[in-house]
Structure formats: C-alpha cells, structure tokens
C-alpha cells in the first residue's frame, strides 16, 4: 500500500494526478484516503489539485460518443440545502430545446436524493440507461451517464464518501470528468468564494465555454434567493461577474421554497414541474436552463433563454422527452 502525503501541504498538478491515481487504483487504504480527503477539504483544494485529480479520473473513465455541441448541467453537491433536483430537470428542459445533453450524475453522497435516485423512481433503469447512453443521446438528445457505469475506478471511493457524509474533492472532480467529453457546461458549486479557484481549474483543463456558478447562500446552482457568483470560462481563461434572477425576468424566492426530500418526494415534484405546475421550482429550473442555453450558444440573453426553456415546459416537450427516454432505456 502506498502512503498518501500530508494533505495539509499543497500538491502540484502533476503530483495531484499521481496521488489520485493511487487512490482510484486502490493502492491506498480506505482509512488513509478518508483522512486525506477530510484534511484537504479543511484547508480548501487548490486549482492545481482539482485539475490534477480530474485528469486522473478522466484517464480511467469509460467514454461515450457524443454529438457536436453536447452540454452538461450539474452541481458538485454537498451544499447542505437538500433542494429539489434542479440540474436534472434543467437537463430535460434543455434537451427538449434541441440541445443534446449528456447528464453526468450519481446517487446521493451527502444529500437526500441524487439525480440517479430521482430518475430511478421516475422509471429510468440506471443500468439500461448506461448501456443505451450513446443511442439515447444520438436519437433523443439526452442520456444519463451514471458514475457507477462510466467511472469503475470510483467503485471503491463511493462507500468512503457515503461514510464521510461531507463534500470532498470528489464532488469537484465529477463535473470535470464527463464521459462524453463535453466542452460546454453549467457547473454549480457550493462555495461562492471558491468560484474563481474552480474556474481556474476548469481553465487548466480547457473548455469552449463553461459557467461556474454559486448562490450567495452556498447553493450549488444559480439561486433565486439573492445574488450569484459566476465565472465565464472560455478556452484557458475566465472572467467573473454577478448574476441575479431579475436578469432572466424571474422573481426572487428563498431557498426554502425549493427544499426537497427523499427520492420519491423529488420525483413527484419533477413530474409536477413537467406537467406545467408553476412556482419557485419552475423558476429555478428556468434560470439555470437559461444559463445552460447561453453556454450552448442558443442565445446570449438571459430573458430569452428563460423564455425558450419555458416553452419546452409549457408545450410538454420536456415531459414527452422523459417518457420516450424511459421507454428507450430498457
């Protein structure tokens, strides 16, 4: 067994890639990994460490073919707010707008219901969704890349994450390691002050365009409650800006208004949303969908993006897409 270095000391990008290679390959003990992850999180991961760790995970994933312009929308998790599954709903809405979406996700690690948990309750077979990912992405414009199916190296890590029950660098690595190799993304993170650090990591890895966003209250998606820190990453550089819901002509709402629960609860809320139910959940989805449509190149206007997304809901295109997806993934 290899002994992990003292996580209180910063690692360079190359060293981080090597160390996380050891972790992913099972060359370290679970106890050492748990200590290492907690210590690293306590002093905050650097952009070099995040980029290096993501590279280690990328070299061990099972890739899928994706159409040109495929996007992803996901959060790092670990924000402690236990909201409804916003990015999952956004993925359906954006795909219904004609933008292919390779939704990368997992079961809950530190929340009550991850994307996989909610979609499974709705009837999407996770094993079948993984096997048919390329087919559904090509024919329907959407797929779910379940980490269990596409990141076999994560198999020994998931029990450690669940036992810890807190966010670690693995929350940060996942969105940077989409098996479809997406070049355009909306990534929500749970620490507003950390947005530029994470954006720097994304810039090191390269992208056509990615938004890194965090609500002021620590929400790992664009929040309706107040302001949001947003990094606009293009190529190997980024710029910071502030974003608020009014820019998309949407009302402010407290985070409590989109509080979620167990998978069954979140699944019912998602069904209601797709059936036209108005309210804060819909508004949060429209806000984040607008951002995703902007990075996808469909629009450069927040209000127009929200309107395009609203049409996908009101026409029931998103609802029909989910039904077709469930039927195909068997």
From TrEMBL:
Gene Ontology molecular function: any one: anthranilate phosphoribosyltransferase activity
- Which organism is the protein's source? Erythrobacter aureus
Q: Which InterPro entries match?
A: Anthranilate_Pribosyl_Tfrase, Glycosyl_Trfase_fam3, Glycosyl_Trfase_fam3_N_dom, Glycosyl_Trfase_fam3_N_dom_sf, Nuc_phospho_transferase
Provide the protein name: Anthranilate phosphoribosyltransferase
Q: Which family does it belong to?
A: In the C-terminal section; belongs to the anthranilate phosphoribosyltransferase family.
**EC class (word):** transferase
Q: Which GO terms describe its cellular component?
A: cytosol
Q: Name one Pfam family in it.
A: Glycos_transf_3
GO-annotated biological processes = L-tryptophan biosynthetic process
Glycosyl transferase family 3 N-terminal domain: from which residue to which, for each copy? 8-59
Q: Quick one: which residues bind 5-phospho-alpha-D-ribose 1-diphosphate?
A: 75, 78-79, 83, 85-88, 103-111, 115
- Reactions that this protein is recorded to catalyse: N-(5-phospho-beta-D-ribosyl)anthranilate + diphosphate = 5-phospho-alpha-D-ribose 1-diphosphate + anthranilate
